[in-house]
Amino acid sequence: MLSLQAILLCLASLLRRNFSLHDQVHHLRGQLAAATAKLQSCIIVMDSSLDMSGMFSYQSDDDSSVPSRSLKNFSLLLSLSALYVPMVILKYIDLLSKLRRPQDSEEVAINKRLAYRVDIFLSLHPYAKPLVLLVTTLLLIGLGGLALYGVTEDSLSDCLWLSWTFVADAGNHANVEGFGPKLVSVSISIGGMLIFAMMLGLVTDSISEKFDSLRKGRSEVIEQSHTLILGWSDKLGSLLNQISIANESLGGGTIVVMAERDKEEEMEADIAKMEFDLKGTAVICRSGSPLILADLKKVSVSKARAIVVLAVEGNADQSDARALRIVLSLTGVKEGLRGHIVVELSDLDNEVLVKLVGGDLVETVVAHDVIGRLMIQCARQPGLAQIWEDILGFENCEFYIKRWPQLVGMQFEDVLISFPDAVPCGVKMAAYGGKIILNPDDCYVMQEGDEVIVIAEDDDTYAPAPLPKVKEAVYIDIVRHERYPQKILLCGMRRDIDDMIVVSPFFKPLITFSL
């Protein structure tokens, strides 16, 4: 390889010498023609003194061309040296290191180490590739301009501009005359085509990476007061439907779903198959892990109005352990959380631990246990399932909690008749850390910060009104019928069957379960 480079260097030197001799012959012919023309004109119209001054001026012009020609030769030699000398030095250092290195040594060759450093530089710095492309373009323009300056009669600035035109457009060298200028211009044009191909590949890769990031859901969500759902389960469809119905009175809203699934191929395709009306609510899907803070910030977790953590299918303890880790990640957000967290758990025994970690921000829902208890109640009271469906959904009337300052100091028996379009059924007590009391005593007095729990059609369809006038009437004693024992047959088995059949002590002697 070293001998091949030496041969190429010798050929380049001979080629430069050939170009130089060719240019000198061409220059001498031009000078001879000019001298002949001057001599003929002097014989006709000028005297001998004027002829002598012309000879002196010709000699001075010839003397001034000597430094210009040596400068052009130096520029041509400099451009060739800048191309070959680095390769020769690297090969010499590599050969020298091989000779000095022991045979059993595991030292890496210098060319491999240099390639590794270049690879690290290009992979770590985001603007490394455009910077390398820019430096390569400037080097090609500079070396090409020096080479053109060495084989043509143009000035250095004109040669640099001509080199730039060859790099920008490969067809500009078609009108070049002379073997030397043609060879240099073709070399510059080939380098320009390679640079253009590199630039095109760089732009294509950047656009492809951007579209791939959008397709896989890696871009940041710029939203606020949105509902954030972390995880994916078969309950997601009904959850999206109910939130869309709740947002209908607000003109729609935004729901962001983040799960460890592919955005376009799985998440958006599964949501499209659900085929229900979103009622103006936008659903945005993102791929990521709720356990990573960077992914949580990507979905604007600190600006979310509410955060819902779904349980994963499979082992109950593993699902609750994952939910606990997600709550720890949420509590570790530096910006803080604007909304509250609703966590779905699979085992009632893990509820205390999750509330201990999350504090007042976390509300737990043990869906498996709640559904089991509702099934027992529906078995005791036929028709109760329709009532639960109407109250727990947003299609008809549902529960709402709101604070009314004008009700402070009023007894609960007066609160019951203060809402013509709603049914008060409980109080969320501020003095006891938000404890909820359903059907409190009639003599309970509303305190500052207490919220009233009502059943209403929507959150904007009810408001307290002035107390109506109640006519006095004779108290009617309600006759309660005698209760008889009930027998309930449970078909099948589940892991929390003991939690499912736990009822109030008042009903224990009246209910018998058979498995």
Characterize the largest beta sheet: strand count, sense, and whether it forms a barrel: 6 strands, parallel
**End-to-end Cα distance:** 88 Å
The overall strand count is: 12
Q: In percent terms, what proportion of residues is strand?
A: 5-15%
H/E element order: HHHHHHEHEHEHEHEHEHHEHEEEEHE
Rg from Cα: 44 Å
Helicity, in percent?
40-55%
Identify the strand order in the major beta sheet. 3-2-1-4-5-6
Broad shape? elongated
On the 0 to 100 scale, the average pLDDT is 78
Which class best fits the helix and strand makeup? Answer: alpha/beta
Number of DSSP helices? 15
Low-pLDDT runs of 5+ residues are 46-67
Question: What tags apply to this protein structure?
Answer:
alpha/beta; six-stranded parallel beta sheet; 15 helices; 12 strands
Written overview of the protein:
This protein has helices at residues 2-45, 48-100, 110-124, 128-151, 156-168, 179-215, 236-246, 263-274, 293-298, 316-331, 351-358, 367-380, 384-392, 412-415, 497-500, and strands at 227-230, 254-259, 282-287, 306-309, 340-345, 362-366, 398-402, 423-429, 435-438, 451-456, 486-489, 511-514. The protein is of the alpha/beta class. Strands 3-2-1-4-5-6 form a six-stranded parallel sheet. Strands 7-10-8-9 form a four-stranded antiparallel sheet. A two-stranded parallel ribbon has the order 11-12. Helix 11 (351-358) links the parallel strand 5 and strand 6. The longest helix has 53 residues, at 48-100.
Structure summary:
This protein is of the alpha/beta class and 515 residues long.
Show the helix and strand layout.
Elements: H1 2-45, H2 48-100, H3 110-124, H4 128-151, H5 156-168, H6 179-215, E1 227-230, H7 236-246, E2 254-259, H8 263-274, E3 282-287, H9 293-298, E4 306-309, H10 316-331, E5 340-345, H11 351-358, E6 362-366, H12 367-380, H13 384-392, E7 398-402, H14 412-415, E8 423-429, E9 435-438, E10 451-456, E11 486-489, H15 497-500, E12 511-514
Parallel strand pairs: 1-2, 1-4, 2-3, 4-5, 5-6, 11-12
Antiparallel strand pairs: 7-10, 8-9, 8-10
Helix pairs in contact: 1-2, 2-4, 4-5, 4-6, 5-6, 10-11
